[in-house]
């Protein structure tokens, strides 16, 4: 069984920083792209940032220059370093990963974490 476990959310004042972690565990053969999404109250889930297995990163416009998405392949872990946080960054943050499970063939499937709340106060 493969699972993603997130940690690091919390309450922070505007202008502050938080670092989210997402660790993949289980019978993992390989991991392709990993990413972070967020969902604010009353809004659809939106992409925040992604990182390929080779380290190529992409950021959505609202977080460019403020967030980074490092990845530790040895630990099957992706992070989201969030700086200069704004109240509009308040949301539940989810990590996602394209994972090939051991014994499940060549196809990679999308797995999701349970979500972690980030609240930015004014």
Major sheet description: 7 strands, mixed
Helix proportion:
under 10%
How would the global form be characterised?
elongated
Q: Helices and strands: which structural class?
A: mainly beta
Number of strands: 12
Q: How far from one another are the termini?
A: 41 Å
SS element count, helices: 0
Question: Could you report the average pLDDT, rounded to the nearest whole number?
Answer: 97
Instruction: Output the helix-strand order.
Output: EEEEEEEEEEEE
Q: What is the structure about, briefly put?
A:
This protein is mostly beta strands and 122 residues long.
Tell me about this structure.
- The protein is an all-beta fold and 122 residues long.
- It has strands spanning 3-7, 10-13, 18-25, 28-39, 46-51, 57-59, 67-68, 71-72, 77-82, 91-101, 109-112, 116-121.
- The strands form two sheets. Strands 2, 4, 5, 6, 10, 11 and 12 form a seven-stranded mixed beta sheet that branches. Strands 1, 3, 7, 8 and 9 form a five-stranded antiparallel beta sheet that branches.
- It is elongated, with a radius of gyration of 14 Å.
- The chain starts with a strand and ends with a strand.
SSE diagram, text form:
Blueprint: E1 3-7, E2 10-13, E3 18-25, E4 28-39, E5 46-51, E6 57-59, E7 67-68, E8 71-72, E9 77-82, E10 91-101, E11 109-112, E12 116-121
Parallel strand pairs: 2-12
Antiparallel strand pairs: 1-3, 3-9, 4-5, 4-10, 5-6, 7-9, 8-9, 10-11, 10-12
